[in-house]
Amino acid sequence: GALAAATSDTWATEIGMLALRAPRSIVTWRRVPRGTSGGVTLLGLFGAALGAAFIELIALGVHWSSQIAVAALAGGIAGSLADSVLGATLQQRRWCDRCRQATERAEHACGAPTRLAGGLAWLDNDGVNAACTLVGAAVACAIAWRP
Q: How far is CA 143 from the centre of its chain?
């Protein structure tokens, strides 16, 4: 589940960047700039499902039970969605006053320090990614260990 969640989240991001339309916030469904944490596109959601399905196929290919394979698929999708929700709601948001741009980094690409503009100061993108994999693992375990 954890590996499926990480794969699902990565594929969602990479494939979603190819979308022609701007993403929407997974929480408010309003349009947001590309690269905004918690922004989703239909193409990105398809990428998330594809990434989780890829791990499911690997599980089936190494002859794991279909229940475990389905658990990986569900965990992957759940983890990716959790990543988007946490990114949109709780993840720290930072602002570069010099460039007047949003960023996820404490130091912007221009070299200027950034300031906290929202979210929880201690919850950065790495923390959200960790939560994503934990959710994926928990959902997969709940399904795989079901009698």
A: 21
Closest alpha carbon to 56 in 1, 133, 130: 1
- Cβ-proximal residues to 87 (8 Å cutoff; 6+ apart), any chain: 37, 38, 125, 128
Sign of CA dihedral 99, 38, 8, 128: positive
Phi, psi of 124 (to 5 degrees): -95, -175
Cα–Cα distance between 37 and 56 in angstroms, integer? 26
The pLDDT score that the predictor gives to residue 66 is 87
Of all helices (H) and strands (E), which one includes residue 40?
A: strand 39-40
The pTM (predicted TM-score) of the whole model is 0.89
